[in-house]
């Protein structure tokens, strides 16, 4: 069963607060998906290096995105922690708050719901929608045994295609 990544949605409040949402069904049990979204070993295979990740509410987190010429780091706090169900990272002003909610779909599948709240321009909203979509494709590949192990191989081509798709969506 392939994980198809459907387009995310967004709404804007007060002109600059964006609420992005994705829901994806992954053909893997929640324990495997949790390891990918909430552990220092899993996060770099699809999203960012977790230089610091204290696994509890109030714990420190530092994520460092490796798919940039100059890796971008964001510091913050873990604001929700319910193993194999919910993890939320509240990062710096640029990266905002990201919440992963995992729901077992059956014994071998998990629905992941991402809610990401951030402040910025409409351009940032579109960039971030495309980035999440791209990263979720990498998550599906990582869970299928093809993790991103060398971020120097990443190119912005797929992200650019996705961004154009998001620009053209109503």
Q: Would you give an account of this structure?
A:
The chain has a single domain, classed as START domain (Alpha-D-Glucose-1,6-Bisphosphate, Chain A, domain 4), CATH 3.30.530. Helices cover 25% and strands 37% of the residues. It is built from 3 helices and 8 strands; from the N terminus they run ββαββββββαα. Strand 5 (72-82) and strand 6 form a beta hairpin. Helix 2 (122-143) packs across helix 3. The longest helix is centred in the C-terminal third of the chain and has 22 residues, at 122-143. The mean pLDDT is 95.
Radius of gyration: 15 Å
Overall 3D form: globular
Series of H and E elements: EEHEEEEEEHH
With strands numbered from the N-terminus, the spatial order across the biggest sheet is 1-2-8-7-6-5-4-3
Topology record:
Blueprint: E1 9-13, E2 17-26, H1 30-38, E3 49-53, E4 60-65, E5 72-82, E6 86-90, E7 97-106, E8 109-119, H2 122-143, H3 157-168
Core attributes:
Alpha-D-Glucose-1,6-Bisphosphate, Chain A, domain 4, alpha+beta, 170 residues, 37% strand, globular, 3 helices
How would you summarize this macromolecular structure in one to three sentences?
With 170 residues, the chain is of the alpha+beta class. It has helices spanning 30-38, 122-143, 157-168; strands at residues 9-13, 17-26, 49-53, 60-65, 72-82, 86-90, 97-106, 109-119.
